[in-house]
Design a protein that fits this description.
Distance between the termini: 39 Å
CATH topology: Porin
Number of helices: 5
Oligomer: single chain
CATH architecture: Beta Barrel
Low-confidence stretches: none
Shape: globular
Number of strands: 13
CATH class: Mainly Beta
Structural class: alpha+beta
Radius of gyration: 19 Å
Order of helices and strands: HEEHEEEEHEEHEEEEEH
Length: 292
């Protein structure tokens, strides 16, 4: 577990090649394209490197423009748009093969006191007696007479424990809502900016799936094309990404081959620490077309 988390920390430790320019690589985990949460986390790291230490990100808004290539480095360029008295704004563009694959705007704020309220955390089972997503995958795969690529069972730096899991190989129609506990697998350094970047990485893991639940489909189908189109996050309160966080997700609408998804992220003590929203592509191809 420690090795997987160290790999994540290394993944987020970008190389500064010159002022406002950072270089990153992708892990070899069998992905056909760069995982969206990786780009979110790395872009946030790049922006944070250009901001004074006393300012913390409070929101980010990004667009996925092209699939990322896992075999080549990613160049992140930072535009220092504004440095105000309380707020700092940055724009980050991720580039591969000379073309933008992702862009994101991030706003940072000097911490200050103010009004406070939140929606309460829903009642649900704790993570202790729930099976992890890794355990569930192995159980579901064992029911099938099919050889899986080793990457399907790779240990990842995050641990996810669904509260009401659905067999990914036997999807059934259900309401567009899901809850899961999630965290980094091992202890992270105390840097609050690192915890924000890890949470950005975590937030993309299951959010898009929520809009597929009412339709009894998921990413294992050959004729289904899914991809994140945009992603937004708001950081409300301090948290640790190496302690259990409850991810409450729903999808209020799908249409036009797109699904809208929302997420509330709570600490174990019930504090609402962050929110997320994402629209994703959910496109069904004809069976014959998917074979071409």
């Amino acid at each position: 577990m420690e090795n997987a988390v160290n790999d994540l920390i290394d993944l987020l430790d970008l190389e500064e090649i010159e002022r406002n320019h950072y270089r990153a690589t992708s892990p070899n985990e069998g992905w056909q394209r760069v995982y969206g949460g990786q780009v979110l986390g790395q872009a946030l790291v790049a922006a944070s490197r250009t901001v004074p230490d006393d300012r913390i990100a409070h929101s980010l808004h990004g667009y996925f423009l092209r699939p990322g290539d896992t075999s080549v480095p990613i160049l992140y360029t930072v535009d220092r748009i504004r440095d105000g008295k309380s707020f700092t704004t940055r724009r980050v563009v991720a580039i591969q093969h000379g073309r933008a694959i992702f862009n994101m705007s991030i706003s940072f704020q000097t911490p200050e006191d103010g009004f406070s309220h939140q929606l309460p955390m829903p009642e649900c089972p704790g993570p202790e007696n729930l099976k992890s997503e890794d355990e569930l995958r192995k159980e579901w795969a064992a029911e099938l007479s099919h050889d899986f690529d080793d990457s399907f069972f790779n240990e990842r730096p995050i641990e996810v424990r669904p509260i009401d899991p659905m067999n990914m190989f036997k999807p059934e129609k259900r309401p567009p809502q899901q809850l899961c506990w999630m965290k980094a697998r091992d202890t992270l350094p105390d840097d609050p900016r690192l915890h924000q970047c890890v949470l950005a990485y975590l937030s993309d893991w299951s959010l898009l799936d929520t809009s597929t639940l009412p339709h009894g489909i998921n990413f294992t189908q050959e004729n289904l094309q899914v991809a994140s189109l945009d992603h937004a996050m708001w950081f409300h309160r301090p948290f640790r990404a190496d302690q259990w966080l409850l991810y409450v997700q729903d999808s209020p609408s799908a249409g036009g081959a797109r699904g809208l998804n929302r997420g509330l992220i709570y600490s174990r003590s019930g504090e609402l620490v962050a929110s997320a929203a994402q629209e994703g592509l959910i496109r069904i191809h004809d069976a014959d077309e998917s074979k071409n």
